[in-house]
TrEMBL record:
Coiled coil: 558-597
One Pfam family per UniProt: TPR_12
Residues given in the record as ATP binding sites: 94
Domain Protein kinase: 65-394
GO cellular component: centrosome; spindle pole
Gene3D superfamilies for this protein: Phosphorylase Kinase, domain 1, Tetratricopeptide repeat domain, Transferase(Phosphotransferase) domain 1
Protein name listed in UniProt: Serine/threonine-protein kinase PK-1
Keyword ATP-binding in record: yes
Keywords linked to the UniProt accession: ATP-binding, Coiled coil, Cytoplasm, Cytoskeleton, Kinase, Nucleotide-binding, Serine/threonine-protein kinase, Transferase
Protein family according to the UniProt entry: Belongs to the protein kinase superfamily. NEK Ser/Thr protein kinase family. NIMA subfamily.
Length: 1038
């Protein structure tokens, strides 16, 4: 059973027998001889928030259009690729939602869409038709084959002349819209498309609204009467939005790349407020903060001059390589735009000064100080640029030299002839620039852009924000240390600088690794950037002095090895294992030759990480224990703390009380070491999270919830609520709540998790696979299978778009969809998908991988429910052989498959053979997860059913009594009802008609059957066959 996080689940995965299983279908409700390891409950209503934020299942047709596939998703609606049979052409079909029940909002949407349809210009995506679909408005528009302007900019180095040419073409589209009385309100590179025919088109007028007089823009005026009231949800106070990525859309917009064959760039998502807010609600904070005008931040009506401002922000950024207004977080952007001034263009830029002056005018804070309209700006940008000053320098120098004025030229080229002293504290800026300055930033953008992934821009933005924040913190530490160098000993100064140098090497290794990224690494990048090393330890004087520094002759070799180890650690964090074992061996050989013990201890820690990711848990545990021992002996407190944290989960194998006790002890050790390390917040969060996972694994759900709540609270205080790091910690709380059956709160917390991921990333980013999987399982547990299917299909769409149909991260999403179909009773659909997984993974003939074994087991159970018993038995036997070969004969998955084989044997009339399977499964379960674990109960139920089938009710009493006790602790009504009815049957058939002394307060058999029947009926339709089998028992006379 899986209990630790995996990459496919975005750091955390649902665990425990109730909330999810790694083994696929194993028995289950709906069979007449159920073992039920994949659990489903029917609730009176859907789980809270189970459907929030997910896409609707695509309709086959909208009006006359045949829907082909979903290509975009946002808070305002969804975009489909569709076929127009009337005009025989492919279109992009945007379906935009209005306020539920609001006729005014619907009419306004349609009026605005019709206004867009009247606009025809070669630089604007054409709108062909407009209509209604239920409460939504559909907009059929031009389907563009190409890429976004942002991707075009990031794909390779571009000349300023070519950049200006494309922007001017986009500006012509904006100017045409303004003349038609329309304002875009969200102009940015993501909303400009470059077709394969090199046409430039402004797209996604999702935030468009008419200007006040329908012609030229005028001064900002009051909102229209029907838009004067602004819902508090739409106000999005800056205090709540302060940590949002300034490159994400707030307010409301469908996907930026409307009509692009493969949606390129980010999928802007709404910020706070309802996703069904009207397009033109006045006073709402609407747009993308990085490109918004001052008047938009002040919630004044936006006009054409607002678009001009956004256009100039985008053009400045494209020409000069950085945005005109400094700031990484939203409140910093708001302050800079509304109160500050734009940064002047760099003096050494090849872009002509006249172009810079035109852009700066367009960036004026007051709208009246900008150009009167886009035409005025475009005319200013069209002025022929003078020859670049850098190109004139050689000519000027030649004149000067020819005149014998070399001294004058030298004076002209430098500000002073006197040598300028170098401030040692300025070196920090140069070092951080080498790690994350303009050149590394541009190189990373080119690397991500070259992959042509729909989510590359979003990942790049998240990585950039994380690295920007870390770089500023590092620079501040460096400056403080340097400025106080005369107030501390040279020894302490050197130690602090060496510590900062090591942390910088780790970040340089991280950036270098991202520069070689593939699709999977780009998808993981936003998560990986949250794991950058903290700098607090570089200020801990006692910790720095506790570790013996290398001798003078070892300084350079140790530095080189630390750089190599930093590269290893970066690859471990990203799970890039190819060739890593050999690299570790090379580092070890050199480290042993040098003999510097602190480095050797760190290397053992890295070897533990490699063993753990490789699946060798015995080796991982041994390395962690060794590294912990070395760290304690060397005074390397942070390494000792990190290894203790890892041992909370690693020093036990599976759920059992002994393993839980070890986890508690390591948690206590880690708490003590944390105090010695200054109680770093990241360590305390991880300590509580890890202990909570082990508690959940051992069904101590309430205690697990307490630990996870503490972790969430501390993460919110440390990192903020709107951060991926906090959302991932909250996901662990969701899992604990789900396992404890507290579904309402789990749903609410999960809504918060999904919301953060969608706001920080976008609705189609692969990192959403983890939260969506959790929401799918939660809905599944609540019996809301329609909601579960929506999220399952969304997961599959995301994974297929990101990685392809046969990728290792795509196939588990197809498996999830198949499981839901199976639980819905769509067994033929489930069978088709299970077989498709085996075909796509190349395991039709031979099951090999973990996925293949699980899928084979699930297919076996589906075939059983279809009545194809011979095929079911054959598939389960293949899965058993593969599991014993790949994972060992005593692995838990073997027990699960044996339970299914017992089920099939009884259905074929071989009760004795089934009993043999279940008894072997029981032995494996008791050895691996303990005698009271929910998985053990499935084997006990199977044994009880087998003994009843053999006419041995007396012998069935003991296993069924045990199974009932285990299931009473778990509390699932269907499973407990099943155990109670089977126990009632055993007691009736063995003439134990009254409760004996050993039974305590147990009711008589008929009453026990009645209690079981009530639970089975309450558990929903999947348990109907069990309820029907129990009815005669409950109806028996006393």
């Amino acid at each position: 059973m899986r209990n630790e996080p995996t990459r496919e689940d975005a750091t955390l995965a649902p665990t425990g027998s109730e909330f999810g299983s790694e083994f696929g279908s194993v028995g289950g409700p709906g069979s007449d001889d159920s073992l039920g390891v994949t659990h489903t409950r029917d609730a009176s209503g859907p789980v809270a928030g189970a459907k929030s934020g997910g896409p609707e299942i695509a309709p086959d047709k909208i009006a006359r259009f045949v829907v082909l596939e979903q290509i975009g998703l946002g808070g305002m609606g969804v975009v489909y690729a569709a076929w127009d049979p009337t005009l025989d052409r492919r279109v992009a079909l945007k379906l935009v939602r209005a306020d539920r029940g609001s006729a005014d909002a619907h009419d306004r949407l349609q009026r605005e869409a019709q206004a867009m349809a009247r606009l025809s210009h070669p630089n604007v995506v054409s709108v062909f038709d407009v209509g209604s679909h239920g409460e939504s408005v559909w907009i059929a528009m031009e389907y563009v084959d190409g890429m976004t302007l942002r991707r075009w900019l990031n794909s390779e180095a571009r000349s300023w002349e070519r950049i200006l040419e494309l922007f001017r073409a986009a500006g012509e589209g904006l100017a045409a819209a303004h003349l038609a009385g329309l304002v875009h309100r969200d102009f940015k590179p993501d909303n400009v498309l470059i077709g394969t025919d090199e046409r430039v088109l402004v797209a996604d007028f999702g935030l468009v609204r008419p200007t006040h007089d329908g012609s030229a823009p005028g001064p900002a005026g009051p909102p229209e009467d029907d838009e004067a009231q602004v819902d508090a949800h739409d106000r999005a106070p800056e205090a709540e939005l302060s940590s949002l990525d300034p490159d994400l859309t707030v307010g409301g917009s469908t996907h930026a790349a409307t009509g692009v064959t493969t949606p390129a760039g980010a999928h802007p998502t709404p910020g706070r407020g309802r996703g069904t807010a009207p397009l033109t609600r006045a006073g709402a904070l609407v747009g993308t903060p990085r490109y918004m005008s001052p008047e938009q931040f002040q919630r004044s009506p936006a006009d054409a001059r607002s678009d001009q401002f956004s256009f100039c922000v985008a053009l400045y950024e494209a020409l000069y390589g950085y945005p005109p207004f400094a700031g990484a977080r939203l409140f910093e952007i708001i302050t800079a735009v509304t109160l500050g001034e734009p940064r002047p263009p760099p003096r050494d830029s090849p872009v002509p000064a006249s172009i810079g002056r035109a852009i700066m005018r367009g960036l004026s804070r007051e709208p009246n100080e900008r150009f009167a309209d886009m035409r005025g700006l475009l005319d200013a940008l069209a002025v022929e640029a003078p020859r670049d000053q850098l190109h004139r320098w050689p000519w000027l120098l030649a004149i000067l030299v020819a005149a014998g004025l070399a001294a004058a030229s030298a004076a002209w080229l430098v500000t002073s002839g006197e040598p300028q002293p170098i401030d040692v504290c300025e070196k920090g800026r140069a070092r951080i620039a080498d790690a994350w300055g303009p050149e590394p930033r541009a190189a990373l953008a080119r690397s991500f852009g070259a992959l042509e992934l729909s989510y590359a821009d979003t990942s790049l933005a998240a990585v950039s924000v994380g690295l920007d924040l870390w770089s500023r913190e590092w620079a501040a530490y460096y400056a403080t240390t340097c400025a106080t160098r005369h107030e501390q000993s040279s020894e302490l100064y050197d130690l602090r600088m060496a510590c900062l140098g090591q942390r910088l090497e780790q970040v340089q290794a991280f950036v270098a690794l991202l520069g070689q990224a593939d699709a999977e690494l780009v998808s993981e990048a936003p998560r990986l950037v949250t794991t950058l090393p903290t700098l607090d330890s570089c200020a801990d004087v006692e910790a720095l002095r506790a570790i013996e520094a290398p001798s003078a002759e070892l300084l350079e070799p140790v530095r080189g090895l630390r750089e190599a180890l930093a590269r290893v650690q970066a690859r471990l964090e990203a799970e890039r294992l190819n060739g890593l074992e050999a690299e570790l061996a090379r580092v070890r050989e050199q480290a042993e030759r040098i003999g510097y013990e602190p480095l050797l201890a760190e290397l053992v820690g890295a070897e533990a990480g490699f063993a753990g990711i490789s699946g060798n848990r015995e080796r991982e545990r041994a390395h962690l224990l060794r590294a912990h021992e070395l760290a304690l002996g060397l005074g390397h407190d942070r390494l000792a703390l990190d290894t203790a944290l890892a041992l909370i989960q690693a020093d036990n194998f599976g759920p059992n009380e002994q393993g839980l006790e070890l986890a508690r002890r390591w948690s206590t050790v880690a708490a003590g070491l944390s105090r010695r390390n200054g109680q770093p917040a990241d360590a305390e969060i991880e300590r509580r999270r890890s202990l909570g996972l082990v508690l959940s694994r051992n069904t101590h759900y309430l205690e697990a919830i307490e630990q996870q709540r503490e972790a969430v609270t501390l993460s919110e205080q440390t990192y903020g609520t709107e951060q991926l790091r906090t959302a991932e910690v909250r996901l662990a709380l969701v899992i604990a709540l789900g396992e404890a059956g507290q579904l309402a709160e789990a749903g609410t917390q999960l809504d918060a998790v999904v919301g953060v991921f969608e706001r920080v990333l976008d609705p189609m980013h692969p990192l959403l696979l983890g939260p969506l999987r959790a929401r799918m399982l939660l809905a599944q547990q609540a019996g809301a299978l329609d909601d579960a299917l929506i999220d399952g299909r969304r997961m599959q769409s995301i994974a297929e778009a990101a990685f392809g149909i046969a990728h290792a991260r795509t196939l588990p999403t197809l498996e999830a969809v198949a499981q839901i179909h199976d639980l819905r009773g769509d067994h033929l659909e489930a069978r088709e998908r299970f077989e498709m997984i085996l075909e796509r993974s190349g395991q039709t003939a031979t099951l090999q991988s973990k996925l293949g074994i699980n899928t084979g087991n699930s297919l076996c159970f589906t075939l059983y429910k279809l009545g194809e018993l011979a095929q079911a038995r054959s598939m389960c036997e293949r899965a058993q052989l593969a599991a014993e070969r790949e994972r060992g004969p005593e692995h838990l998955i073997v027990a699960i498959i044996l339970n299914n084989l017992g089920l099939i044997a009884r259905a074929e009339g071989d009760a004795r053979g089934g009993l043999e399977h279940d008894r072997r499964a029981l032995a494996i379960c008791e050895a691996s997860v303990g005698p009271t674990h929910p998985y053990t109960a499935y084997s006990l139920i199977g044994i009880g059913q087998g003994l009843l089938a053999l006419g041995q009710p007396d012998s069935a009493l003991e296993p069924l009594t045990r199974a009932r006790a285990i299931r009473a602790e778990v509390g699932d009504p269907g499973e407990l009802g099943e155990a109670e009815c089977l126990l009632a049957r055993a007691r009736i058939e063995s003439d134990v008609l009254e409760a004996g002394p050993e039974d305590g307060e147990d009711p008589p058999p008929r009453e026990l059957a009645r209690e079981g029947l009530v639970k089975l009926r309450a558990a929903g339709p999947n348990w109907i066959p069990h309820a029907q089998a129990c009815e005669p028992l409950a109806a028996r006379p006393d």
